[in-house]
Amino acid sequence: MAAQQSLSVADTETGASPADGPGLPAQPGPQPGTPKTSRAGRNLPAAIAVGALLAGMLVTVLLVAPHLWVVVLAVATPIATHEVTRRLREAGYDVPFLPLLLGGQAMVWLSWPFGVAGVLGAFGGTVVVCMVWRLLGQGLSHTPVNYLRDMSATVLLAVWVPLFMSFGALLIYPADGAGRVFCLLASVVCSDVGGYTAGVLFGKHPMAAAISPKKSWEGFAGSLLFGLTGAVLAVTFLLPDKPWWVGLPLGLLLVTVGTLGDLVESQVKRDLGIKDMGTMLPGHGGLMDRLDGLLPAAATTWIVLTVLS
């Protein structure tokens, strides 16, 4: 428990590392021949290369074959679900992966013919199957232990990854679907760049020191400025059927939701005593470490662009 309390999760916005928390001893500087790292403790060249590769892949999909976006999400969903499930199981939670895997695919793919009704129907079915699966996992002759705790974590995971991912799929189906997805990605990227830059250069006032010690209000202001600008420009040039001012509530909500999403994952990782959800992406951690703010932002983008249609 003490080890978990002393662990400070890395924060890319302001360059925090696990050794930067209050009261922790200074760490030795980089040794000759070691990869160059950012202030966040990441392998900076690897992080930039992986980020550029992912961005190039997504842009290519959206420009050449927009509906392949659903395939991308269908592949990402089980990977992210497995990362979180594995970490939860390492911490002693009994989370049923197979129902989450199949239910996640149902949520994403049923969004194609049935829209929101298909997504919510698949989500409800997934939760019911998980409840029964966990109840009967050891047979009728055994009394389940920590059932409420494990089911709470299971439902959280079902919402956090496949349900939010399915709202990302719903964005692509309208005639201007590729533009809607670009609005999501552009706003989130601008927010991340603005938050990181302002946080590193000016960050002095912690936003949530107990959760993410180096996330600052100055960084949030940078996220807000860049995110709003990116959202307004994206709506203006990519969604010509919508007025430019739609970018204002979109940017404001995406910055807020993205920041809160980062804090939620930071707290989850703090509870689990880990730094990253996985190791799949060099310089970034796991896939879920890149999706923490993007997933709730996808649901938010769908809501804003649907309501303000």
From TrEMBL:
Positions the record marks as coiled coil are none
Q: How does it sit in the membrane?
A: Multi-pass membrane protein
Q: Which GO terms describe its biological process?
A: CDP-diacylglycerol biosynthetic process
Biased region (Polar residues) positions are 1-15
**Family matches, as Pfam families:** CTP_transf_1 (PF01148)
Q: Where is the major localization of this protein?
A: membrane
GO MF annotations, alphabetized: phosphatidate cytidylyltransferase activity
Task: Report the family membership.
Answer: Belongs to the CDS family.
Name of the protein this chain belongs to: Phosphatidate cytidylyltransferase
